[in-house]
Design goal:
globular, two-stranded parallel ribbon, mainly alpha, two-stranded antiparallel sheet, single chain
Length: 618
C-alpha cells in the first residue's frame, strides 16, 4: 500500500483495511500483524482498536496473537497491552504501555479509553500500580515539548484516578505526588505528599513534599520537609545532597556546603555529595579546580552510571560561560565595523569593498573575516606599536619561545597564510564537528577525537584557509572562522596521543601556535592546551605554566598598546587547571577592569583614533 506513505493516519487506515481482509479469510495471525502495524503508526485510531477487539473476542483469539518473543516491534507490544486490558489484565497491560512510552516518548500509546476510565485503577492492586509508576518514572523525560506532554497526559489522569480508587494507600499518594510534580502540577503534588504523610509518616513522603514545595519557591518549607525526612534515616546521604542543592539554588552557598560536609563526614567518598560540594564551592569561589575535580569524578565513574550522569549534569550547569562552554566573541575594531556594515546589508545586495584605517595592527584572522565578507577591501594601519604583534610573544623584551610552527607570515603589515590549504576531506572533517558551543570542556575534548585521524597539515591549513560556512548569511563568517580554528586546535590535541606529553608533537605545535604572532589562533591553541589538561592530570602543571606565562606576556603588551585578545586570554587563564594563584588573580583584575570600563563607542570608519592599552605601569 503506497497510499499512507508519509501520513501516519493514512498508513494506519491502510493496515486496518488489510487486517479486515485477513480476518475475513480467518487469517488471525496476519490480521494481528496488521493491527500491530496500525497501532504502531497511529495508536489512537478507533478502527484499529475495533478490529483488535474483534480479534480478542474470538474463541481462538487473545493476547497470544501478539507474542513477546524474538525482535519485538513496539506496535506488537501496544497491541498486546490492549488485548490484555480487554481480558482485565490491566497491570500487565500498563507495564507494556510504559515500556512503549520509554521507546518513543512522544507517541500517545496510553491515550485509550480503558486507561482514562476512572474505574480502571479500582481493578488493579495498589502494589501493582506503584510498580507501574516506578517504571514510568524511569522512562519519563522532561515534559517540555507539547507532543511529549500530550503523550503523558493519560498517566496524569491515571495518577488522579488511582488515589480516588485507593484513598487509603500512602504509597499511591506518594507516587501520585511524584508524577504530579513532574507534570508541573506543584500545588496538587504537595497536597498528595501531605496526604501520604498523614496516612503513613515516611521519609519518601517528606521528600516528595520537599520537592513539590521547592518547585513553588517555598524554600524554607521545602527545607523543613527534607530535614524532617532525615529523622527516618539520618544516614540518607542523597537527602543531604538534595538539601545542599536546595540551599544552593536559594543562593545560601555556605549553608549548602556545610550540608555536603556533613554527608562526607559520614561517607568521605560519597560521589553525589562530592559533586555537589565541588559545584557549590565553584559558585562561591570561582575556582575552576572545583569543576576539574567534578570532571575527574566523571571520568573515573562507570559510563552511563548515575554518578557519571550527575557529574556531567553539574559540570554542564557550571560551564555556561566563555571558553568553558563556548567560544569568545571577537572584539576587534574591524569586526565592529563589519557588523555595522552588515546591519545595513540585504542578502541580495552586491558586496562592496570597504576602505578602513585602523590605529594599530589587529589579528590577521579578523582581517580574514573582512576579506571573506567584503572581498578586496582595503585595511590599513596607522602605526606599528611595540611589542610587535607580528612577532612571537615577548616578555621583558625577550622572545619567550623559539617558534617553528606558524600559520601566518607578514609582508610589512599584510598577513598571509604560511601553510598550504587543507585537503577537501580534512577541511570537511573539521567543519562537521565545528560548533560555537559545547556542554563543557571534557565534552569538547572528547568530541574532537573525531579529528584524531585528520592529518596535522590539514588541521594547520584549516586555521587560515576556512572552508565555506553552512549558511549564506555573511554575518556568521567571524564566528565560523573562530569555530574552525578552535576545533582544528582541539583536533591537534589528539594528534599522536601515543607520544609522551613533554616531547609530543601536539604539545610543541599547540605551544608554538599559542606563542606565535598575535591572533585568534593564539586563543584557540591555548584552549586546546587547557582542554588537554582537563582530560589528563599529568599535563596540568605544564599547561598551567604555558598558559600563565603567555598571559603575562599579553598583560605586558597591553600596557603599551591595544591587545584585543587580552580579555579572552584572561578567561582562558581562569579555565586552566592548577593555575598559579597570582596569574589567576591578575586575570580577574583584567576582567573586572573590562566590566567597569564604559562601553566603547562604535568603531569609526574609515579612520580610528589610537586606542589606549588596558593597563598602566604601576
Amino acid at each position: 500500500m503506497d497510499e499512507g506513505v508519509g501520513d501516519p493516519r493514512l498508513t494506519a487506515e491502510g493496515e486496518v483495511s488489510l487486517a479486515r481482509l485477513a480476518l475475513d479469510d480467518n487469517e488471525l495471525s496476519h490480521a494481528a500483524d496488521h493491527v500491530a502495524s496500525a497501532l504502531g503508526a497511529f495508536p489512537t485510531l478507533p478502527e484499529a482498536h475495533e478490529v483488535l477487539g474483534m480479534l480478542v473476542s474470538r474463541p481462538d483469539g487473545g493476547p497470544e496473537l501478539w507474542p513477546l518473543d524474538g525482535e519485538l516491534y513496539v506496535g506488537t507490544a501496544v497491541a498486546r497491552a490492549h488485548a490484555l486490558a480487554y481480558q482485565g489484565q490491566y497491570a500487565e497491560a500498563l507495564e507494556l504501555l510504559v515500556s512503549a512510552q520509554g521507546h518513543e516518548p512522544a507517541m500517545r500509546w496510553a491515550d485509550a479509553p480503558w486507561v482514562l476510565d476512572p474505574a480502571t485503577p479500582a481493578r488493579i492492586e495498589p502494589g501493582d500500580l506503584v510498580s507501574v509508576f516506578a517504571r514510568l518514572f524511569r522512562v519519563m523525560p522532561e515534559l517540555r515539548q507539547d507532543d511529549v506532554r500530550a503523550a503523558f497526559t493519560p498517566y496524569l489522569a491515571l495518577a488522579r484516578n488511582m488515589t480516588a480508587a485507593h484513598p487509603e494507600s500512602s504509597w499511591l499518594w506518594w507516587a501520585a505526588s511524584i508524577y504530579l510534580r513532574r507534570s508541573g502540577e506543584y500545588v496538587e503534588a504537595a497536597a498528595a505528599a501531605e496526604r501520604s504523610a498523614q496516612l503513613e509518616p515516611s521519609d519518601r513522603a517528606d521528600i516528595a513534599l520537599g520537592y513539590a514545595l521547592r518547585e513553588q519557591g517555598r524554600t524554607d518549607e521545602a527545607l523543613a520537609a527534607l530535614q524532617h525526612g532525615l529523622t527516618f534515616d539520618p544516614k540518607n546521604l542523597s537527602l543531604y545532597a538534595d538539601i545542599a542543592g536546595l540551599l544552593g539554588t536559594a543562593g545560601r552557598l555556605d549553608e549548602a556546603i556545610e550540608w555536603t560536609d556533613r554527608a562526607l563526614a559520614i561517607e568521605p567518598g560519597h560521589d553525589c555529595s562530592l559533586v555537589e560540594r565541588h559545584g557549590l564551592r565553584y559558585r562561591r569561589d570561582g575556582d575552576v579546580n572545583e569543576l576539574v575535580a567534578i570532571a575527574d569524578l566523571r571520568r573515573s565513574a562507570e559510563p552511563d552510571s548515575h554518578e557519571a550522569q550527575h557529574a556531567d549534569a553539574e559540570l554542564t550547569d557550571r560551564s555556561r560561560q566563555t571558553w568553558l562552554g563556548g567560544i569568545a566573541i571577537p572584539t576587534e575594531a574591524v569586526i565592529n565595523v563589519l557588523g555595522q556594515f552588515l546591519e545595513n546589508h540585504s542578502p541580495g545586495d552586491e558586496r562592496p569593498q570597504l576602505s578602513l584605517a585602523v590605529s594599530s595592527i589587529e589579528p590577521p584572522s579578523a582581517l580574514l573575516s573582512v576579506e571573506k565578507v567584503a572581498p578586496g577591501s582595503d585595511v590599513t594601519f596607522n602605526e606599528i606599536l611595540t611589542p610587535d604583534p607580528r612577532q612571537p610573544a615577548v616578555l621583558d623584551g625577550r622572545p619567550m619561545r623559539q617558534i617553528e610552527v606558524a600559520v601566518w607570515s607578514y609582508d610589512g603589515t599584510t598577513a598571509r597564510p604560511a601553510v598550504a590549504p587543507p585537503s577537501e576531506a580534512g577541511a570537511q572533517a573539521v567543519a562537521r564537528v565545528a560548533d560555537w558551543e559545547w556542554l563543557h570542556l571534557p565534552a569538547a575534548y572528547d568530541r574532537a577525537v573525531l579529528l584524531a585521524d585528520t592529518s596535522l597539515d590539514d588541521l594547520l591549513g584549516v586555521l587560515v584557509h576556512p572552508v565555506l560556512p553552512p549558511s549564506d548569511d555573511l554575518a556568521i563568517w567571524p564566528m565560523w572562522i573562530r569555530q574552525l580554528q578552535t576545533w582544528a586546535c582541539l583536533g591537534i590535541a589528539h594528534h599522536r596521543t601515543d607520544e609522551a606529553w613533554p616531547d609530543s608533537t601536539r604539545r610543541k605545535v599547540l605551544a608554538d601556535l599559542a606563542y606565535g604572532p598575535e591572533d585568534w589562533v593564539t586563543e584557540s591553541a591555548t584552549l586546546a592546551l587547557i582542554a588537554t589538561a582537563w582530560a589528563d592530570p599529568a599535563t596540568r602543571e605544564d599547561v598551567a605554566e604555558l598558559v600563565g606565562w603567555r598571559f603575562m606576556a599579553a598583560v605586558e603588551a597591553a600596557r603599551e598598546r591595544p591587545l584585543t585578545i587580552l580579555e579572552s586570554l584572561a578567561q582562558l587563564v581562569l579555565a586552566t587547571p592548577a593555575m598559579n594563584s597570582s596569574a589567576a588573580s591578575l586575570a580577574r583584575d583584567v576582567l573586572n577592569l573590562q566590566t567597569e570600563a564604559p562601553e566603547p563607542a562604535p568603531a569609526p570608519a574609515p579612520a580610528a583614533k589610537k586606542r589606549r592599552g588596558w593597563f598602566r605601569r604601576g
